[in-house]
Amino acid sequence: MFTQVDKEHGPSVRSILKIILLVILIGMAMNILIAFIMDKTTVLKSLDRVRIVYLLIPFGCYLAVNIIDSFRTVLIARQFQARVPLVQAFYNSVIGVLISNLTPMAAGGQPFQIYHLQQQGLNTRVATNIILSRFVENAMVLMLILVISTPFIIQISQSLAVGGVVMYVGLAATFIFAFFFLMALVKPDMIGRVALYLRKSFVGRIVTRVTRKDDWADRLVEWSTQLREEVRFLWTEKLWIMAFDTLLGVVDLLLQVVSLYYVIIMVVGSGPSFFDVLMAYVVVWQVVFYIPTPGASGSIEGAFAVVYSELTHNPALTLVSIVVWRFATYYLHIFFGTIILSVYLRSRKNSVPLVSE
Asked: What pTM, to 2 d.p., does this model score?
């Protein structure tokens, strides 16, 4: 469920700004703590190496990811004879990222995207199929990369100290979550089976009380069964479309890694190879993604600084490069998303979704 904003009486952008301010303060506090642990004097001096272009290139890379994902949404929606305007697809992508950046474990973005697609005329199953399929595509790509590159990852990990532990944990997490979401895609009806199993349990009674529907499990069984048929349609009759969509997902991943690699090379002056940056990015992201801070704020900077510092052998400059990269790809995109959200709210006469409850 999402809260809605009434034009006259509902929460305004000011409410969202309060959340954003809190997230930024958490991130800044974590970054200051990391700087003190390393060497605040050296870190502050290293900031002199930063140029405005070091922010613009990563910001542009992530903006390109939003644009690509907009076209992906339009493409997949058309397979179900549904038309999502490109501007709405772009809003769906940008605000999905914004809400992910503001919620613990980045958990709010996908539910918002599903809700917003419903507002564009897609039924819940189709909207869920689009977002779930993309999530699983990403997990499968990451798992394929790791399967192919496991020997190299182990070699990198063995050369690290604390960073090696982070790499091994990330490697395990990637395989576990990739398998889980693959099962959700291959057998989405298992959602209904779990609901039937939990129906009379303590959790089931809570769901009944919250939804005020005694037959919620039966409804979920029916919904998940229909979802299974639509998943099967998308991945059998539209396999080439999904393969192309997966390829675009790979482009998204490479753009994200390019943004990080660029900043490390420019700030540090030299560093690990692009392949090493890619492998570390894929693995470490799986660790920090599930840390319960808003958008993994602070934890990403810490984990990435630990791993990449041991790869570059220059902790101070590496920390600066990570902070610069995060400022461009996280904090600036929160600001950008807030502007898009504000413009969107002002252009709407009816209520619009904001944040998950």
From this structure: 0.76
